[in-house]
Description:
This protein is an alpha+beta fold. It has helices spanning 2-26, 48-51, 87-92, 96-102, and strands at 37-41, 57-59, 72-78, 103-107.
Amino acid sequence: MKKLFSFLFFFLLISVGVFAAFKVIGSSPEKSKGAATNYHYKIRSADITDLRTMSNWEVGTGGSDCGDGSDVPCVIAFTPGTSDPDFQTFLNNRNLSGLLAASQSQKESD
């Protein structure tokens, strides 16, 4: 009887461990991506250094300056991912044409 109880207890521990492992695997960050955040480019410079400077961007959809051209991005909807965990990394990983392709709207440069 003691061996049976030990066997059942061991089986219960193994079962809990297996189910816990599947629970951890099922809750990977890639499956729980958040909603996109809109970033508005506050200035009109097409210089890549200015485009990659976070202080030139603000959270929001921008003002009336969007849609008057196609030289620089105006609003980019950003969702974190494995290769771009934050908006600064996203900016650093792209050139002007890549940022234009990712933008929802553009504007005229200075």
